[in-house]
Amino acid sequence: MLRRILILVASVFAASVVVFAFMAVLPGDPAQVALGVNATPELVERTRAEFGLDRPLVTQYLDWMGGVLSGDFGTSYVTREAIGPQLVDRLGVTLWLVGAGMLVALLIAMPLGTIAAVRHRRPSGTAVSALSQVGVAIPAFLAGIILVQVFAVRLGWLPSGGWTPPVRDPVEWLRGLILPALSLGLVQGAVLTRYVRTAVLDVQREDYLRTARSKGLRPYPALVRHGLRNAALPVLTVLGLQLTTLLVGAVVIERVFVLPGIGSMLLDAVAARDLLTVQAIVLVLVAAVLFVNFCVDVLYTVLDPRLRRSW
C-alpha cells in the first residue's frame, strides 16, 4: 500500500510538471488577454509583474505548486477571484453527476450483462446483447437531448436543466439530477454490459464452476457463490476506465443541462483564455484519474487473495 501511495504522489507531481509546461508554451500573453487589446505596454508589464509572469518558469512552478499543496490555486487572470473556492463548488456538482451516472451504469450492466452471459445463444440473451450494441452507438449528449424531449418537454415530469443544491431543496435537487445521470449512465451502462457479459462467459467455462454445478448447485447460485467474484476482476479494470470517461463526458452533459460543474468552468476558462484556471482544473482532473487508478489497484488486492499471498 505504501508503495502504491508513493507511486500516486510521484505521478501527481509528474502530471503537474507536464500541465504547467503545456500552459507555459501556449501562445498569447495572459496579461494582455486580461487587459484587452487597447492596453498600453506599460500597463501590460505592470500586470505581468502583478501576476508573477515576469519571473523564471521554475520559480512560477514552485510558487504555484506550493499554493496548490496548501489549497490555494491562485487568482483568476480574468475575474480576479480566487480559483480554489470555485473549484470546490463546481467539483461538488460534477462528483454528484458522475457518481449518479456510475450508479445508473452499474444498475443496468450487472444484471443485464449476467443475463446475457447465462442465457447465451438464447433469444433473451441475444436481445440484451443487441440492445447494448445500440446503446454503445448513442452519444451521451444525444441521449440527453432525447430524454429532455420526452420527459421534460412532452411529459413535463422533470426539469430540462438547472441545478438546485441538495441542502436547499433535496427534492428539486434529485429531480434535476435524474436526466443528466441517465444520459451518462445509459451509454456507459451499455458499454459495461458488454464487458460484464464477456467476463461472466469466461468464468462459466472454468473447471471450478463446472465442479460446483456437478455437485448439485443450480446455474445462478453456482455463479453467485463461485463465479462473480472472479468475473469482477476484469470488470473492475473497465470500471476504472469508465469513471474517467464519465468525467470527460460530464463536460458535455453539463452544457446540455446547464449544470454549474467543473466541465462548464473549464469551457468558460478556455473561452476566456484564463490559463491559470485551466491549469488548475486540468490538474484536478488528472489527479482524479490517477486516484481512480490507485483505488482500482487497491481493490484488486481486496478481491483477489492471490495478490495478498504473493506479497
Q: Topology of this structure?
A:
Layout: H1 2-25, H2 30-35, H3 41-51, H4 57-69, H5 83-118, H6 123-137, H7 140-154, H8 170-204, H9 207-214, H10 219-256, H11 262-271, H12 275-303, H13 305-310
Helix pairs in contact: 1-12, 5-6, 5-8, 5-10, 6-8, 7-8, 7-10, 8-10, 9-10, 10-11, 10-12, 11-12
Oligomer: single chain
Q: What average pLDDT do the residues reach?
A: 79
Any low-confidence stretches, pLDDT <50, length ≥5?
none
CATH topology of the largest domain: MetI-like fold
How are helices and strands ordered from N to C? HHHHHHHHHHHHH
CATH class category label of the largest domain: Mainly Alpha
InterPro entries: BPD_transp_1_N, MetI-like, MetI-like_sf
Domain ABC transmembrane type-1: 91-294
Subcellular location: Cell membrane
Protein name: ABC transporter permease
Q: Explain this structure to me?
A:
It is a single chain. The chain is mainly alpha-helical and 311 residues long. It folds into two domains: 2-83, no CATH class; 87-310, MetI-like (MetI-like fold). The protein is 79% helix and 0% strand. It is built from 13 helices and no strands. The longest helix is centred in the last third of the chain and has 38 residues, at 219-256.
Keywords:
single chain; 311 residues; mainly alpha; MetI-like fold; 2 domains; 13 helices; globular; ABC transporter permease; transport
Care to give the gist of this entry?
This protein is mainly α. The protein has helices spanning 2-25, 30-35, 41-51, 57-69, 83-118, 123-137, 140-154, 170-204, 207-214, 219-256, 262-271, 275-303, 305-310.
